[in-house]
Write a structure and sequence with these properties.
Layout (H helix, E strand, L loop, with lengths): L27 E4 L3 H5 L1 H12 L6 E5 L5 H7 L6 E7 L2 E7 L2 E6 L4 H9 L5 E4 L20 H8 L7 H14 L6 E4 L6 H16 L1 H10 L5 E4 L7 H11 L7 E3 L4 E5 L15 E3 L2 H28 L5 H6 L1 H15 L11 H12 L8 H5 L2 H8 L1 H14 L6 H13 L17 H10 L5 H4 L2 H4 L7 H17 L1 H8 L1
Parallel strand pairs: 1-2, 1-6, 2-5, 3-9, 6-7, 10-11
Antiparallel strand pairs: 3-4, 8-10
Helix pairs in contact: 4-6, 6-7, 6-8, 7-8, 10-12, 10-15, 10-17, 12-13, 17-21, 21-22
This protein binds nicotinamide-adenine-dinucleotide (NAD).
Length: about 500
């Protein structure tokens, strides 16, 4: 049976929304309705609507990228309903989620997007736009103001292309109408995601609309948050099993794990729903978010990146298969325990050893079918955030405590990424690098041959400090050399 409002009452064995979905306000506009948003924020909001009837807080999705047309085409005919399939070894559970009640595809409809954000009923504009959507230079910590998309939006001829172009246009209208600024809430995997959002948006707005920028600086809110729920890409087989097991024909369901977490800083400029009622850890201080964020990015996300490129080169398809391999398991576990854990501050009531175990257990969920290719995506946004800071901190530790500061396994991850950027696997087959910087990365990978120097020279990713550190460069050179000579598995035997 097709998923849509009128068929909802006919589904059996699956929870469906029972709340009012028509004619309700959309207090949240969300940019980047991908898998993760639909398994995370939209699920928390679904609970608010179902259990607490906070009906002014439904979500209007927005897609800025041309490829988002496929999400519009999937959701619109099913009244924006979709199914979340929770997979665990013990079995699957499904719920139809109804919190998204509209969707605007921005290309060709820019005015509708700006008007929606500027509408007084919109209180929060949230986003999951991937690391590349922030135009954040890791080296200077500034906006990449000379990026062609940003230059085009600053010129303001034609409709905006970037998130900042849209936010600035909508906030400008609110400022001139005497309204409050909506809260700008990043749900992307970045350390200090709220700070980065604030800083990039204000940099953009100062160049485009300085009066509004001053108002926003004083009155805006940009909560930091730690977000967590592993959400693989939806496969055709997921749609088929949903139809078979639950009788639902859904064009684009979401598959995810039972675990979910959101630690959110309580900083809102125009009100918020009572997120704490539905399991969100709403915290008063930035410090609390930062501790959780650091632990998650440096252990969970770093482990994903550490296994991704080596596993791809070694021919693995799924994350659970990688974790089931004793060598990979040992490598990830030892990297977390020996090279990352000593760098993390203790968090009250959190056992870091248990957290490391839970990371491996979650990765090992065989029913999730999370693809290695997904965790390889966008390395330029991930390695500098999840891996390089631990390496940099280990180097400083060494100078302070002479002799300590292990970083071999972390460095092998960088070597694995650099080897992967050659875009030829160990059997000589070519593949495509999916990364916003793919052209530059591949050119540098080829220019550098089997050594790291050309890639390490990309300042926006690596800055200047590490390139000059002889121990790190030496480790990286020998790890790359081993990967070229012996392949990923043989190399791992020595590093695990
Ligand atoms: P996805 O590919 O399903 O969706 C990505 C979304 O980002 C799309 O809607 C796309 O339009 C939008 N987008 C990409 N580049 C953009 C840009 N430059 N400007 C505006 N929008 C842009 O991916 P996903 O799994 O939903 O992941 C999205 C983000 O969510 C990740 O980058 C990460 O920060 C965060 N996240 C994902 C997971 C996960 O397990 N998938 C877990 C935690 C956090």
């Amino acid at each position: 049976l097709r998923l849509c409002s009128k068929n909802l009452s006919q589904f059996r064995g699956v929870e469906v929304p029972t709340y009012q979905r028509h004619g309700v306000k959309q207090g949240i506009v969300h940019i980047g309705v991908g898998g993760f948003h639909r398994a995370h924020l939209a699920v928390y909001v679904d609970r608010l609507l179902e259990q607490f009837r906070q009906q002014d807080w439904s979500i209007c999705g927005v897609g800025l990228q041309p490829f988002d047309a496929s999400m519009r085409d999937a959701l619109a005919p099913q009244d924006y309903l979709y199914t979340v399939i929770e997979r665990a070894a013990a079995g699957s559970k499904a719920r139809v989620v109804g919190s998204i009640t509209d969707y605007i595809f921005a290309p060709g409809n820019s005015e509708a997007v700006i008007a929606k954000m500027a509408n007084p009923d919109t209180h929060i504009v949230s986003m999951t736009i991937t690391e590349s959507g922030y135009y954040y230079n890791e080296n200077t910590h500034e906006l990449e103001a000379d990026h062609p998309d940003i230059v085009s939006d600053l010129n303001g001829q034609g409709p905006p292309k970037t998130t900042f172009g849209y936010l600035t246009a909508a906030l400008g209208r609110r400022y001139r109408a005497g309204l409050r600024p909506f809260t700008v809430m990043s749900c992307d995997n970045m350390q200090k995601n709220g700070h980065i959002t604030r800083s990039m948006l204000l940099s953009f707005a100062r160049l485009r609309d300085p009066d509004m920028a001053s108002w926003l600086e004083k009155n805006g809110a940009f909560p930091n948050s730690m977000v967590d729920r592993i959400t693989p890409r939806t496969l055709d087989s997921d749609k088929a099993s949903l139809a078979e097991d639950f009788g639902i024909e859904d064009s684009w369901p979401v598959v995810t794990e039972p675990f979910m977490q959101w630690v959110l800083e309580d900083q809102f400029s125009d009100g918020r729903p009572s997120f704490e009622e539905v399991g969100v850890q709403v915290v008063k201080s930035l410090h609390e978010v930062e501790e959780f964020e650091l632990m998650k990015l440096r252990l969970l996300n770093a482990s994903h990146s550490a296994m991704a490129y080596l596993a791809y080169l070694a021919g693995f398809n799924y994350v659970h298969e990688v974790v089931a391999d004793p060598l990979f398991n040992k490598y990830i576990s030892n990297m977390m325990h020996e090279e990352v854990k000593p760098l993390l501050p203790a968090i009250p009531n959190v056992d870091v050893d248990q957290y490391c175990d839970s990371v491996l257990a979650r990765f090992g969920n065989p029913t999730l079918k999370d693809e290695v290719t997904r965790i390889c995506l966008g390395g330029s946004g991930k390695i500098p955030q999840f891996i390089m800071p631990s390496i940099a901190e280990q180097i400083v530790r060494e100078t302070e405590q002479s002799g300590s500061g292990p970083l071999r396994r972390l460095t092998l991850c960088v070597a694995g990424w650099f080897r992967y950027l050659k875009s030829v696997d160990e059997s000589g087959r070519g593949f495509k690098i999916d990364d916003p910087m793919s052209e530059e990365l591949q050119n540098k990978a080829n220019e550098g041959g089997k050594g790291p120097n050309a890639l390490l020279g990309i300042r926006s990713l690596f800055g200047d400090d590490l390139r000059g550190d002889s121990r790190f460069v030496g480790e990286l050179t020998s790890a790359m050399d081993a990967l070229y000579r012996e392949g990923a598995l043989r190399t791992l035997e020595r590093y695990a």
